[in-house]
Amino acid sequence: MRRWWAVAGLAVALAARAVELRVETVAAGLEHPWAVAFLPDGRYLVTERPGRLRVVQPDGRLGPPLPGVPRVDAVGQGGLLDLVLDRDFQRNRQLYFCYAEPGAEGNATALARARLSADASRLEAVQVIFRQQPRVASRLHFGCRIVQAPDGTLLLTLGERYHRMADAQRLDNHLGKIVRLHPDGSVPLDNPFVGRSDALPHIWSYGHRNPQGAVWGPDGRLWIHEHGPQGGDELNRPEPGGNHGWPVVTFGEQYGGGPIGEGTHKPGMVPPLHHWTPSIAPSGMALLTSERYGPAWRGSLFIGALRGQHLLRLELDGTRVRRQQPLLQELGERIRDVRQGPDGWLYVLTDAPNGRLLRLLAQP
Q1: CA separation for the pair 120, 93 (Å, rounded)
Q2: Is 322 exposed, middle or buried (0-12, 13-18, 19+ CB in 10 A)?
Q3: Could you tell me which residues are beta bridge partners of residue 124?
């Protein structure tokens, strides 16, 4: 039976009338779920960080782990992470997922594609199409959010692995970068650094720390958010070839105090659209295009706040954050992922040993 919680005291004005936001548990018993995707038949695919991919039935029943997932390095922040379906999934059954891949010289964020079998019981034709270089012996900062652009290319966020933050400013590695690929892993010829001998051709933008949210934004561009250190979490709109500053410029500071880099701005480096200090530890991001919650929320960004244990709604005016509204604080749970479902409702995953897939409903 589905369980319902009224979010106490949370009544928001939507289309000039108050509605109550309610939370429905779709499924429970997920171990540190990280990403959710929506199958055309109404079922869900959910990744669990220890390395499992499960089909979740509409009534919440969890299927067994699907065979075919490669071995993952489920250490620290690593494991099986993001997942998206191909835009033509209904025809080709193809999906993409990223994960921490183990190796003799350390681990790295890898991107794979696979086909979901016709009966959704296993992954077929699994192929790793990208591996972050170099490998690093680290448990931190894998990044690992995937967006498929309207032209079919894939954009993948990559963390700088914490100990190698200076490499985010170098173009001869994939640390602290966003990369852009064709679905087969080949490099698009219009990538900004193609043809440069001092740069890897996969790179789209650089100077990032640990991006854990990505979405195709309201202006038809890629938007991301990324973790700062102690403060300085950022909302960014990565530009092709853009240098987003880390660790030369940041609004954060060293853990325990002390400056990092050269301040908050520098010519030639792209400033964030918005930053959070103190940190909210953002993860997951969705752009709401439906009017399920009324027209006032349409066009808002929704971001999970791990540290703040809430869901944050950002009301936008172009690229400016006009208003912020924290939601779901009463749940007291870490929000790992947020997506808009095919039904127009928002869905969130809670990051816990007994994590849940939740549907957010607005009731008159």
Answers
A1: 9
A2: exposed
A3: 115
Rg, C-alpha atoms of the chain? 20
| Beta partners for residue 216, in sequence order | 222
User: Count of CB atoms within 10 A of residue 99's CB?
Assistant: 31
Residue spans of beta strands (DSSP E) within 197-354: 203-206, 211-216, 222-226, 233-236, 274-276, 282-287, 301-305, 310-317, 320-327, 335-340, 346-350
In the chain, pLDDT over 90 holds for what percent of residues?
A: 93
pLDDT tens digits, 200-239:
999 999 999 999 999 999 999 999 999 999 999 999 999 9
Joined together, the tokens standing for residue 244 give 């987003």
Bridge partners of residue 83, in order along the sequence: 97
Measured CA to CA, the distance from residue 233 to residue 244 in angstroms comes to 13
Peptide bond preceding 192: is omega within 30 degrees of 0, i.e. cis? no
Among all residues, which ones are annotated catalytic?
141
Contacts 24+ apart (CB under 8 A), 39-45: 39/85, 39/120, 40/89, 40/90, 40/342, 43/120, 44/357, 45/83, 45/85, 45/95, 45/116
Q: Are 31 and 42 in contact (CB under 8 A)?
A: no
CA distance 91 to 88: 6
For residues 110 and 128, give the distance between their C-alpha atoms in angstroms, rounded to a whole number: 7
The Cβ of residue 332 has, within 10 Å, a number of other Cβ atoms equal to 9
Burial 23-46 (b: 16+ CB within 10 A, else e): bbbbbeebbbbbbbbbbeeeebbb
Task: Please tell me whether the overall predicted TM-score, pTM, comes out greater than 0.85 for this model.
Answer: yes
How buried is 268 (Cβ within 10 angstroms: 0-12 exposed, 13-18 middle, 19+ buried)? Answer: exposed
Mind listing the pLDDT tens digit for each residue in 118-134? 999 999 999 999 999 99
**Is the dihedral angle over the CA atoms 68, 70, 75, 81 positive or is it negative?**
negative
In eight-state DSSP terms, residue 92 is H
